[in-house]
Amino acid sequence: MTMRTSWWLLAAGSWLAGSMAVQAGAPWEERSAAIGAAGQTVAGRISGDALERLRAIGLELFKGEFTVNDGVGRPGATQAIVPTKRRHPAATEFNRTAGLDANACSGCHNKPIVGGAGDFVTNVFVSEGFESADFDTTDPQFSNERGTNHLFGAGLIELLAREMTADLQGARDKGLDDAARTGEVQAVRLVTKGVDFGRLTVHPDGIVDLDKLDGVDMDLVIRPFSQKGVMTSLRQFTVNAMNQHHGMEAVERFGGRWTGTADFDEDGRQDELADGDISALVAWQAGLEPPTTAVVEQAFAARAASGAHLFESYGCDSCHRQELPLSSLDFADPGPVDAAGTLNDGQVKQVATYDLASLPWAKTLKHNEKGEVLVPLFGDLKRHVMTDNRIDRFGNELLAQRFVDRNIFMTTELWGISSTAPYGHRNDITTLDEVILAHGGEARAARDAYADASKDDRADLIAFLKTLVIPQ
């Protein structure tokens, strides 16, 4: 049985179109040969039908059950984000801790549909350390357990993070200029889109005091993905996940330019994922429609409306902000702030720009008086202390992750929460009531207001959260 697919590539400013008939299950280099043409790049502005064609390729990659013919396996390499050779030969290719642990991305991201979240059984393990990550135990001294997050609205999340990063870094740079010009110490408030990330003290000699920084890394880059807020972009997330979960290694990180070999993982397959393959995956994820509010029958709607009011009055919206403004729906790929190992816009001749405004769901988004898109994420893209001496549902965490302390987590965006049970950073909390009561730290006051409320009021707030769904 054969399938015939049209593959689209934009390179050197002009469309290159091709079609190919390939045998199902053929080696991946055959199936992706068209994407790999012309320098293995996707570039230029891509919108409308052209964007949907590129996204269709990304969906097939996301659902594809990779095999050894494609390059599955990394017998000579670990899952570390820095290319790292194994200390010992791989005892087995599939391993529920360090991976391999899935045949397809959709094996974990599937609730309620492809691109969604996962049940407890899909949990993964992340090791601390950028190399030497060669382990085979669930002991929390060596790894932290993580549930699967959904990807709907992820393109909007990344665009918000990029704009917020630009605001924060712009404020810092202005403070440096002002301090140098005036010879006076400058106090720089770090506020973007109404979210407060603390302040900097900037000295005329260029020294920047970071003691009052809050909820963001020292480089002021917002990293919106993962429970700890340590992933900068969908591209970084994709390259990391493909290696850890499948042993499918991207050329942009594991290819000869960086490692000196086209088969770094020693599995007999060279250049397993071209730049264009990663771009197609990014385009599909970035274009996923955002979660929405369900239309419910009148009696339930009344309870949900009451719950929405209580959500604000209890202070839940101090972190779970209903919406943040976004200036542009142009998604540049690769983006501006990724570090080495993930392509960024300084490493390519021309970026691709995915016009998210051309996708049908974009017409459903609301705008403010400035014409900005209002992204209804119910989050703030900021890290917060989530435990205290009375609540510690994170006690299984013994390791910081990428220098983020064990009790600090990124605010979970609540859009789609009704469609993505179970809850918590390791999918071990079964109800919305439980996960609210598991809050501590900076969320203590809001949690206690909910805990002290009447049974009916608590039910109303849960009814409101039940309206936040992923469209199917």
Automatic annotation (TrEMBL):
Signal peptide (from-to): 1-24
SUPFAM superfamilies per the UniProt record, alphabetical: Cytochrome c
InterPro entries: Cyt_c-like_dom, Cyt_c-like_dom_sf, Cytochrome_c_Peroxidase/MauG, DHOR
Single GO term (MF): peroxidase activity
Pfam family, one: DHOR
Cytochrome c domain: residues covered: 302-469
Keywords assigned: Heme, Iron, Metal-binding, Oxidoreductase, Peroxidase, Signal
Gene3D superfamilies documented for this protein: Cytochrome c-like domain
Name this polypeptide is given: Cytochrome c peroxidase
